[in-house]
Design a protein that fits this description.
With 253 residues, the protein is an alpha/beta fold. The chain has one domain: Rossmann fold (3-Layer(aba) Sandwich). It has seven helices and 13 strands. The strands form four sheets. It has a seven-stranded parallel β-sheet with strand order 3-2-1-4-5-7-11, with helices on both faces. The longest helix has 13 residues. The chain is globular.
Length: 253
């Protein structure tokens, strides 16, 4: 039975962990908050306090087969130190969760070979993908939504929808989990994938619909917007793992 360590059992990490447990994986999970340890334990997760900016990472947390990194830190130096600890552990396979924010708004479709920003996140991706001690697959998720993360609450400033003629790149929590489990079960490593629904409605139409669902009617479409955007293609992922999105048509969500 494989053991998987999940760094960051929050909005995505906790339901991912419980799904993996139901599939008979042993799961270790981390949080930075002591009061969340009982929640992890009650879910069947072996819980740890882990902060990669701390020099005291529990050695046993990395006594696993696979490591999934689900934290939002952009501290390159902290990740560099953390990687040194991974190198001396039993971890041989890593999934690093990144973001489609690595691509600039080019008003075109972007793929995994498109130009990226010069950003801390891209630099951290490289720390993992260039390391030969373990195999890394990078997943660049689009905007995350689902359950308590309601898209109708994403637009806050003065109820104005910016870039209304741009397009959205979102992915539901259930699809995030389905993709991560497919990567593990199909043993797909040393790859980089974009992961977002393969439909891209215009921001005006999508957010007007979603804001109405949470009682926020009559949003304003920003008349001064430059309408910059990118359309993120998930076709490489779909082809590589044969994945079918549960929430593909975002206008039907």
């Amino acid at each position: 039975m494989q053991t998987i360590s999940i760094l960051g059992c929050g909005w995505l990490g906790l339901p991912l962990a419980t799904t993996l447990i139901n599939k008979n994986f042993n799961v270790k999970g981390s949080t930075t908050q002591t009061n969340k340890l009982p929640i992890l334990k009650a879910a069947g997760i072996v819980p740890y306090i882990v902060n990669i900016e701390s020099k005291s990472i529990p050695t046993d947390f990395l006594n696993s087969d696979i490591l999934i990194l689900l934290i939002t830190s952009k501290n390159r130096d902290a990740f560099q130190q953390f990687i040194k600890q991974i190198e001396t552990s039993t971890i041989k396979k890593v999934i690093f969760i990144s973001s489609t924010s690595v691509y600039p708004n080019s008003n075109t479709e972007v793929t995994e070979t498109s130009e990226t920003n010069q950003s801390p996140l891209v630099a951290i991706e490289s720390l993992f993908t260039q390391n030969n001690t373990f195999k890394t697959t990078v997943i660049r998720f689009g905007g995350l939504f689902g359950y308590q993360r309601k898209p109708g609450n994403f637009i806050r400033a003065h109820n104005i929808i910016p870039n209304p003629e741009g397009y959205i790149n979102l992915i539901h929590q259930d699809d995030c989990i389905g993709i991560l489990i497919s990567i593990i079960e199909k043993d797909i490593w040393n790859e980089t994938f974009n992961a977002c629904a393969n439909s891209h409605p215009k921001r005006a139409a999508f957010y007007t619909k979603e804001m109405a669902k949470v009682g926020r009617l009559h949003p304003v479409l920003d008349p001064d917007s430059d309408n910059v955007y990118k359309i993120v293609s998930p076709e490489k992922l779909i082809s590589a793992i044969g994945y079918t999105f549960k929430y593909s048509n975002l206008m039907d969500y």
